[in-house]
Amino acid sequence: MNPAYSVIFFSTATGAGYGLLILLAALAAAGLIPPRFGLGIAAFTVALTLITAGLLASTAHLGHPERAWRALTQWRSSWLSREGVAAVITYVPLLVFAFGWVVLGQNTGFWIWAGLAGAALAVVTLICTAMIYASLKPVPRWRNVWVVPVYLAMGLATGALLLNFLMHVCGLGAAWMVCLTAGMTLAAWSIKLAYWRHVDLARPMSSAGSATGLGRFGEVRQLESPHTSENFVMKEMGYRIARRHARKLRQLAFGIGGAVPFVLLLATLALPPVLAGFLLAVSVAAGASGTLIERWLFFAEAEHVVTLYYGARVSSGISGGK
Amino acid sequence: MTSLPPSPPKKLGLVIDLDTCVGCHACAVACKEWNAGGHSAPLTDENPYGADPTGVWFNRVHSYEVTGGECGRTVNFPRSCLHCDEPACVTVCPTGASYKRAEDGIVLVNPDTCIGCKLCSWACPYGAREFDDDDGIMKKCTLCIDRIYNEHLAENERVPACVAVCPTSARYYGDLGDPDSDVSRLVAERGGYDLMPEMGYKPVNKYLPPRPRKTAAGATGAPDRLEPLQSTTQGEDHNNRFLSWVDRLLSR
């Protein structure tokens, strides 16, 4: 599938923003974070900017962005529509939570309930985003049980890296938060590894034989393409550039997004605050870069069954085979 | 509304005979010609006279080679929207622009409400939808809705353009929801099948498989072999030997 940059930015940015706010609400509810103004203004600004910028970016690939509001109407059947509705509704409790924290200096009682409601809706929004892909039967690498956990875990891990850094900058840094962040990073990339393992071993569902119905006569091979240059279907669904580098890119994503932040986080436990702050900033950048590569691969590696009509033999889970 | 209507009473669609299709692309060209001025007009072409032309077409004709089992064979394979009974392209649409008509099952796009998110094209296993970059909306086969119900056309012309033009009558149009219709009977008789049934989209359009390959001549009442003009049994036929001797003599 063609990896549209607007969609990659959208899903990683909103993931990190929602992840940050989910953790902020959960940790505040547990009484672990005081309603300090500095942290509040920083965390809400960063998170809401990421979420809003991501949602706006997602409209950039539309043919008619001015009609985007129509996408809120078909929540009964469409995961994309559900995601839009959930994203809009989530703003309400999150802004109430932000008001209580930043303006009134409170993160307990009513205000934390608003925060928890916002966190729950943020989880719902992330699930809807993942389900847009996980519901598509023609893309076997997306249609599996690992896609939703990956989107949730990646959002939480990148959000944790951000929150951990902001807490450190605001003088609220704590060893437990560093360990929690390291744990979430480890968990997210373990889930991603499981996703990769799953899609690599998945058995192909369709073949050129089933796509044409000619499999009963023997092996089906494209003799002549219907057109001389690439059409929309081939460009959008038959994206193949750099797929042969998939293995290396996976290692790069895992190294930059998972291993580097994990090591840096643990190292900061034994370092003076200024140096630790610098390393935590690097960990945020590394986590974001790794997640961007991971999300790019999520699209670039995904094969669509329509390519079977254009000469692909089987729609397989085997990576880098082309 | 992108929720699907209850199973429509009529299921208008096509039956494509892979046995008689000669791969002439007339259906694709006629489709382009009609629809460039029809319901989804224009079907934008980019760089049409350049080195790398591209554009929106609703019908594409592939050619496949099938090997193994028996001798290789070439099968021409027209591919267009199958107007599925369970079209995920419709249910994924966030705006309601994609819809399946309750009265005849035709799947259409409303050009005034499509936001051009392209998700429907991702949801289609058959590559039936093509995005028009100029218009910023998704386009697809309309089953020539502006021909089949067009009272300005003579009754026998109220069929999709691809069906009307096919020089080998490899394309049939009709109601596949009615088990007694001509197309339904043809499908039953010839073993018409669904493309990628494992996707569960329940396509309405059916494909008729190529007929079994013939390895012997048909029975026409002719003898297996003709009587020899000249007997090969030499020695007994003196007359024949004499003629052979004359032949040899004259051939010197």
Brief rundown of the structure:
Chain A is mainly alpha-helical and 322 residues long.
**The CATH architecture of chain B:** 2-Layer Sandwich
Could you give the distance between the termini of chain A? 14 Å
Which segments of chain A are poorly predicted (pLDDT under 50) over 5 or more consecutive residues? 316-322
CATH superfamily of chain A: Formate dehydrogenase/DMSO reductase domain
The share of residues in extended strands of chain A comes to under 5%
Report the sheet with the most strands of chain B, covering strand number, pairing sense and barrel closure: 3 strands, mixed
Widest sheet: strand ordering of chain B: 10-1-11
Overview of the molecule:
The complex is a heterodimer of chains A (322) and B (252). Chain A has 322 residues and is mainly α. Chain A has a single domain, classed as Formate dehydrogenase/DMSO reductase domain (Formate dehydrogenase/DMSO reductase fold), CATH 1.20.1630.10. Chain A contains 10 helices and 1 strand, in the order αααααααβααα. Chain A has helices spanning 5-29, 37-58, 79-103, 110-134, 147-169, 175-201, 208-212, 232-237, 246-268, 273-300, and one strand at 219-224. Chain B has a single domain (12-46, 54-208), classed as Alpha-Beta Plaits (2-Layer Sandwich). Chain B has helices spanning 26-35, 88-91, 119-123, 145-148, 161-165, 182-190, 238-251; strands at residues 12-17, 45-46, 54-55, 60-67, 73-79, 98-100, 107-109, 130-132, 137-139, 171-175, 206-208. In chain B, strands 10-1-11 form a 3-stranded mixed beta sheet. In chain B, a hairpin with a 6-residue loop joins β6 (98-100) and β7 (107-109). The longest helix of chain B is centred in the C-terminal third of the chain and has 14 residues, at 238-251. Classes of the chains: A mainly alpha (322), B alpha+beta (252). Chains A and B meet through α3, α7, β1 and α8 of A and β3, β4, β5, α2 and α3 of B.
